[in-house]
Amino acid sequence: MTVRTERRGPVHVITLDRPSRRNAVDGPTARRLADAVRDFEDGDAKVAVLTGAGGAFCAGSDLKAMAAGDFPSPTVDGPPPMAVTRARASKPVIAAIEGYCFGGGFELALWCDLRVASETAEFGLLNFERGLPSLDGATVRLPRLVGQPRALDALLTARRIPAREAADWGLLTTLTPPGEALSTARTLAERIASLPAPALQAARTSLLAQGPLPEPEALKNETTLALSALPPPT
Would 83 disulfide with which of 30, 55, 94, 154, CB 3.0-4.6 Å? Predict the structure, then answer.
């Protein structure tokens, strides 16, 4: 299987497992990733960790598979290449990143709520070097996370961004020594899972929904969500 899952208590670990291709995603892998995320959302795990096998996170879309017509032609309403990036997961997802995190793989990391990365990780929208546009959310999520000037830097240069620079941008939650991204992400996931879920989920929903809202409407939405999460009076 090119996508493995493992349950550790309240934490659901999803691993892209195509190390010979630096975990580049082809059509079947994208579908298996969607199934793994759906299983997480439908189950009782509280947090997911998304990672890659063999010292890489994800090198993006598999170009050989694309050339062979493995991916369906993208449409406005159809699934994006990575299959899961069109909408946020209903529960927190943490990316645990070692090595390559390029193209659609970078967009997968941006889709996650938090990003834990090794000092050896590299980020970048290298798809632009081959004239391939971003279809998994980079132009939407990256500027919201790091600001427009830095997002334009990443987009217009298509350069490799070392982990230390990504951390300086505020893109990463935690920077770890080599080989420790997954264990650190699991510890973080366990901490999140230990907190009472209703209040946490209400706060997450409010934060993610506020972008297009005027401040008074965003504040009202926060209050509505928070009140729905309060425990009943005793």
Answer: 30
